[in-house]
Please model this.
Amino acid sequence: MNRRYLSAVEPLPDHILQVDFVSGSRLLLDMKPYLDKTRFRSLSDLRVWSSAVTNGIFVRFGSVELSHDELLSMAEQEH
Model:
């Protein structure tokens, strides 16, 4: 079974991550509050930040990986 939840990802200026879902929804996630965490510290490097890719389930920035569920959970915590 090949599930895909994410159709595209784009790292925007000011550490805003744009995530497009296969449903047509778009998430703009402010990653700045996470940059001081050990896991996400490397995203402060613009080369790492701009390397974001997706395989339809995960977003990867080099060795940093976020699942679609985790992205949604982070978005819920913003509000």
